[in-house]
Amino acid sequence: MEALTVAVLPGRMRALVEPLLPGWVEARWWGSPEELAALARDAEIGWFDLHDKPPVLAAIAAAQGLRWLNTAYAGVDWLPLADLERRGVALTCGSGLTTHQVAEFAVMGMLAIAKDYRAVVRAQDRHEWPDAAPGTRDLAGSRALILGHGSIGRAIGRTLEALGVSVEPVGSQGPHDWRGRLGEFDWIVLSLPGTPSTKGMIGAAELATMKPDAVLVNFARADCVDQAALVEALAEKRIAAAILDLTDPEPLPAGHPLWSLDNAHITMHLSGIPTPASLQRAAERFARNCGLFREGKPLEAQVDLRLGY
Prior knowledge:
309 residues; elongated
């Protein structure tokens, strides 16, 4: 009888994943960090996702027979990529699983600023009927620079183009002259992976070249932006606003200045929280990748461990 391949998988995904698993996979389900620690050493296939990262890293270190590690997180900069490469472990990530919901959050924030939807809600709370819309910006006819043209950047771009926005994308390996053109755009949208080259890419110098009515939209990584420089620019109204799905730290402490800035729109990293639809996509992709793994073929959403995405 052919030996089974041990897969150590999250119990919270069992109802979605188990019916899709091929017969050669022996699934062992974990429901707590302690269960993960106990099961990880036998894993040939691992899915170790936890919000608290140290138990995940410990499980990876313990799983010396690991051949494929799956994560539903799109960003993998927190994982030991060099060690996985040295050990010959394939890594698949959650790229594309939450694309549409993240894009919807980004465009929702842009529309909320353009129409000052905060003021609309507050007027309703006060039972007031304003004579004019509090926000008079139109997305149609505006210009957006999208830094990062993966699945999320493309989805944001398509949605904005449908609203009449002129979109200019720059891929992760794209031209570097975008800095000299920041002053041309109404919206600067970040949707890049977190890598050493993207850290601090928007700092004081970049903020200083933006238009006074420009809006920075960050759905990439918190460290892509010099947060202290951004707080200063917002406080001094040197740019109009920022939409931040990511901050440093998370959650923000109660007294952090970002909370009190009326032109900081914080979405609390909610955009990528799994929905029922994205969880189903994650289960189906994992099942497809089981077949590809068995056949020795490249996996869907496989990470280039040297590039980090």
